[in-house]
Amino acid sequence: MSFFVAYHPSYIHAVPSTHRFPMEKYGLIYEQLLYEGILEEAHFLEPNLLDLKIASKVHTKEYLTKLVNLNCTSREQRVSGFVHNQQLIEREFRIMEGTRLCAERVENGGIALNIAGGTHHAYTNRGEGFCLLNDQAIAAQWLLDEQLFKRILIVDLDVHQGNGTAEIFKNNPNVFTFSMHGKANYPMHKEESDRDIHLETNLKDKDYLNILKSELTAILDSFSPDFIFYQCGVDILETDKLGKLSVSQNGIRLRDEFVLNKGKERNIPIVCSMGGGYSTNVRDIVNAHMHVFRLAHQLFGK
């Protein structure tokens, strides 16, 4: 099978109750995958904790030491979005391992998806925006270190710029960072990705998809990646409280379909992380995320 999904109950249960929304989406996605028969319970990848040595290839030793020993300052914790505790830190390392495990297991021309992840605001030396460590950066660096792939493309379609990812790989010619995000959205100070597209407020399906198709096709042609990480946040949705864009559920489905088909056409393995989603109704968030799972199963799971 060339279709894998990583999940662990701690993705939600290790989060403080004050932050359960929208984190509860992870458990609901898992339940929906079972309900629709996309996967059986025994077929999910269940990640352990990421090896600290692998994390240290991306994040500084000083920061990791502070994180695992619960020594981050009150200000650093506020910036990260969480009050830190041992359970939360272990959760973060498990999510990191989920994306790395997906990258290890995915086959050429196949796909693997982490129900969590997409923690693109984490920098080499700090956490930010509910991201303590950067899962796609860690997995990408691991692939390079293991010499499994040589040219990695990170496609970040969350409404917020992947600022941490851009900082981590700013001097690495083997990783191309591509971020399409809201111009008037967090973070106000944006890092420089290899390719940044700053989207205007209230952008709708047609214009969004036209930009994506033009930009991603050009990047694939010029960079010729042999591996793709896809951060498929759904906070571009018109119902999102924070997104400021006006993309419909069908627009998200077409977005995911385009990205997945591009990978399949070129026989490039893809690993997806879910990223953000902040609609008032959690079902809107889950429905938006489910598009990529259904498409992955349809295109790669047979």
From TrEMBL:
One of its GO terms (biological process) is epigenetic regulation of gene expression. CDD domains: HDAC_classIV. This is Histone deacetylase. Pfam families: Hist_deacetyl (PF00850). Residues 19-290 form the Histone deacetylase domain. Coiled coil: none annotated. Keywords: Hydrolase. The keyword Hydrolase applies. It comes from Fluviicola taffensis (strain DSM 16823 / NCIMB 13979 / RW262). One of its GO terms (molecular function) is hydrolase activity. Belongs to the histone deacetylase family.
